[in-house]
Amino acid sequence: MPVGIDALTFDDAAECARLEALLFPGDDPWSAGAFRSELQAGHPYYAARAGDRLVGYAGVALLPAPAFSREPAEAEVHTIGVDPVVQGHGVGRRLLRALLDRADAIGAVTYLEVRTDNVPALALYRSEGFEVVGTRRRYYASGADAHTMRRDAATHPRDPR
């Protein structure tokens, strides 16, 4: 079934929380309220849908560059989650690219944290131009470490696939 990407809504929050608990059980998964708070704050969040079914979500915070400053804008990827049923079919990449398009539109340097043992996510992020710039020990509730990754704003259009 084809998967479409559109805006995440308040009505999606409970399903996002269910997926979070499935995907990140020992790492303090987000509640429905946490997703609603992010939407209420105006952060760009996207949903991946197979028909009427939510199969993924992603969100980013954008911080425009300060006026009259040489400092770039910044973006922080808050979360990306993809239902295991559709993992490995490009859904995570499409969600990430939706976030990066928003960051690139304001010339933002983008940051994220990812578990050091999440090999598929690390490969995805590297393939989209992210580099490891540090490690946060015991970053997750489970005690797992995280890499902090950074990507400069794109200066040329990306292949939309």
Biggest sheet, in brief? 7 strands, mixed
Please state the structural category. alpha+beta
The helix count comes to 4
Mean pLDDT: 93
Query: Which outline best applies?
Result: globular
The strands making up the biggest β-sheet line up spatially as 1-2-3-4-5-7-6
> Helix amount, in percent?
25-40%
- Catalogue the unreliable spans: none
Helix and strand sequence: EHHEEEHEHEE
Characterization of this structure:
This protein has 161 residues and is α+β, with helices and mostly antiparallel strands. Helix content is 27%, strand content 32%. It is built from four helices and seven strands, in the order βααβββαβαββ. It has helices at residues 13-23, 32-40, 91-105, 119-127; strands spanning 3-7, 45-50, 53-63, 73-82, 108-115, 131-136, 146-151. A seven-stranded mixed β-sheet has the order 1-2-3-4-5-7-6, sandwiched between helices. β2 and β3 (53-63) form a beta hairpin. α1 crosses α2. The longest helix is centred in the middle third of the chain and has 15 residues, at 91-105. It is globular. The protein starts with a strand and ends in a 10-residue tail after the last strand.
Any chance you could write out the topology, listing elements then pairs?
Blueprint: E1 3-7, H1 13-23, H2 32-40, E2 45-50, E3 53-63, E4 73-82, H3 91-105, E5 108-115, H4 119-127, E6 131-136, E7 146-151
Parallel strand pairs: 4-5
Antiparallel strand pairs: 1-2, 2-3, 3-4, 5-7, 6-7
Helix pairs in contact: 1-2
